[in-house]
Amino acid sequence: MQQTQQTGQQPQAPQQTPPKTWLVESILVTLFCCLPFGIAGIVNASRVESRFYAGDVEAANRASANAKKWTLWALGVGLGVYVIYAILMALGVVGAAMFS
Q: Containing H/E element for 52?
């Protein structure tokens, strides 16, 4: 018969990793694309790891999804603004060349 030692420790669950934070991406789109949406992405990204390590995995996953959503919206809006700006500049150059 084998004796088992009881150390008072509970069996450990497999180690989970926290969800993607999107923090670096949020900071970059805030700097280069769209400030308001990027800030929303940073706020949500900063909540991911703290909620995960507090044991609230569901809230961490929600914060990660929200950070991704706001980061991608900021990227899309920023790129859209740059494209519209480039089109308007090109039209201005063409218009200036045609009427001068």
A: helix 35-53
pLDDT single digits (tens) 28-63: 999 999 999 999 999 999 999 999 999 999 999 999
Q: What is the mean pLDDT of residues 75-98?
A: 96
Name the pTM for this structure. Answer: 0.78
- Tell me how far apart the alpha carbons of residues 70 and 23 are, in angstroms, rounded to a whole number: 11
Amino acid identity, residue 38? G
Place of tokens 């008072």: 8
Q: Are 15 and 57 a contacting pair, CB within 8 Å?
A: no
At residue 11, the pLDDT reads 47
Could you tell me which of 12, 26, 29, 9 has the C-alpha nearest to residue 77? 29
State the CB neighbour count (10 A cutoff) for residue 88.
10
Q: For 46, phi and psi rounded to 5 degrees?
A: -70, -15
- Residue 27, burial from CB neighbour count under 10 angstroms (0-12, 13-18, 19+): middle
